[in-house]
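Sequence, please.
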């Protein structure tokens, strides 16, 4: 905000902590030349047409852009900025935190201590599986998946990954490409790091859960839409899988009465993968850089639709 306020531009800032409802955003964007948005804002063709012909750039403060109709932006000649790279390490840290929290039942155990339910050291109390020495399947070995893989080197895991095509990153982290079915069948931990696209929508659904090991743990720090949440609930209730650690859900937030939140073997976080202070500050900086570049007609620093536009 300090950088934007210092720039020679007129600002219209949404002042509330919750996102502008779509009709209000559509109204407020009319006549704007730039739009700096969050992943909670739906940016579609109708909104672009409401904005009018002066809209020159959409700059999102996030790496994922599944809330934005990028094809519609491209068709209108509008570059879309995003913030890759600077949040990979923070998101990988959180992924490891979720792996350990679910396997070693940290949230459940800490809640028991606070509620006075811890009475004695118990040989079988709060036991769970090891991350050390486990087989970990990474779905999407991109920037974040590779950062997760680097961290796991210290846990002596066997690393499998699945991408549509084998990745050059794999050799550096000693990860083996397998098809998705093999990954699901062999992994003790399945961790999702693919973007949300039509191809990854409900990639992990009932058939995937049937393939997973009974003791397996699912971690999702990507997007809620990659998982069929009803199938996940069924798989957790039936013991088809052991636990889930979710930083992302559908919808966000889940209503407090959602059945997933009642399960002790599920850890749900409020989409905080990138929420280290330094990552968020760098994301904000890049979002401002992209916005100002677009307003000045310069190429964006990180553009989602560069080939078509720059
Ligand atoms: C967060 O989810 C992001 O896409 O940056």
């Amino acid at each position: 905000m300090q950088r934007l306020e210092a720039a020679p531009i007129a600002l219209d800032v949404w002042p509330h902590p919750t996102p502008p409802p779509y009709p209000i955003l559509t109204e407020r964007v009319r006549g704007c030349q730039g739009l700096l948005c969050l992943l909670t804002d739906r940016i579609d063709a109708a909104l672009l047409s409401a904005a009018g012909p002066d809209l020159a750039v959409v700059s999102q403060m996030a790496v994922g852009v599944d809330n934005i109709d990028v094809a519609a932006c491209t068709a209108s000649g509008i570059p879309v900025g995003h913030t890759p790279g600077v949040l990979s390490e923070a998101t990988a840290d959180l992924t490891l935190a979720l792996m350990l929290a679910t396997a070693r039942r940290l949230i459940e155990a800490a809640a028991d201590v606070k509620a006075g339910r811890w009475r004695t050291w118990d040989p079988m109390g709060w036991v769970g599986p090891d991350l050390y020495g486990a087989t970990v399947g990474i779905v999407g070995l991109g920037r974040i998946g590779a950062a997760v893989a680097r961290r796991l080197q210290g846990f002596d895991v066997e690393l499998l990954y699945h991408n549509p095509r084998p990745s050059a990153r794999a050799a550096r982290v000693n990860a083996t490409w397998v098809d998705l079915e093999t990954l699901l069948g062999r992994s003790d931990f399945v961790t999702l790091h693919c973007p949300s696209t039509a191809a990854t929508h409900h990639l992990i659904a009932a058939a995937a859960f049937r393939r997973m090991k009974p003791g397996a743990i699912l971690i999702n720090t990507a997007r809620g839409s990659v998982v069929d949440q009803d199938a996940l609930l069924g798989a957790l209730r039936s013991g088809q899988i052991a636990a889930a650690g979710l930083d992302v859900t559908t919808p966000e937030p889940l209503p407090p009465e959602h059945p997933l939140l009642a399960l002790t073997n599920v850890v749900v976080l409020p989409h905080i993968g990138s929420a280290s202070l330094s990552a968020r500050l760098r994301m904000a900086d890049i979002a401002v850089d992209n916005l100002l570049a677009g307003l000045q007609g310069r190429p964006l620093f990180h553009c989602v639709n560069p080939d078509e536009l720059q």
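Residues 277-295 form the longest helix (19 residues).
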